[in-house]
Amino acid sequence: MELDQCLNFVLTKAQQSIHQLFKAQLAPFGVTPGQYAVLKCLWDEDGKTAKQIAELLFLDGSTITGILDRIEQKGFIVKQVDPRDRRAIRVMLTESGRNLEEPLTQAIIEANQKALANFSDIEGESLKNLLHKLNPGS
């Protein structure tokens, strides 16, 4: 089988291209795509545990720890021990983290528009639906 016919190769190449686009769109804010995903989880519901965020984003414990550490260093979140379960770490947005919601949401909207610029609206929706079918657990 030719590489350009191998689903893994085609998806990996597409994912790398999309990742670079989103990375460039978020760079002016000093945020990576992974950090954006964590912030989005917290904008939806502040105070989630690190474990809850990791589960939502399909990340392992060490990966989420590194992302949270870097976001905390930037002053966008604070980590607090959960008073009801001292083993759990609650993640709280700071004012700086909350203030990023509007500009980062706009940056993500623009990145999505750029990524789908060569597709009609129907094709773009179809692509997203087909990709969701590849991830039945999500």
Task: Note down, in words, how this protein is organized.
By secondary structure, the chain is mostly helical. It has a domain at 24-117: Winged helix-like DNA-binding domain superfamily/Winged helix DNA-binding domain (Arc Repressor Mutant, subunit A), CATH 1.10.10. Helix content is 62%, strand content 11%. A two-stranded antiparallel sheet has the order 1-2. Helix 1 crosses helix 6 and helix 3 (50-56) packs across helix 4. The mean pLDDT is 94.
Radius of gyration in whole Å, from Cα?
17 Å
Widest sheet: strand ordering: 1-2
**The level-1 CATH class of the domain at 24-117:** Mainly Alpha
Strand content: 5-15%
Shape: globular
H/E topology pattern: HHHHEEHHH
- Identify low-pLDDT runs: none
How many helix segments?
7
What's the CATH superfamily of the domain at 24-117, by name? Winged helix-like DNA-binding domain superfamily/Winged helix DNA-binding domain
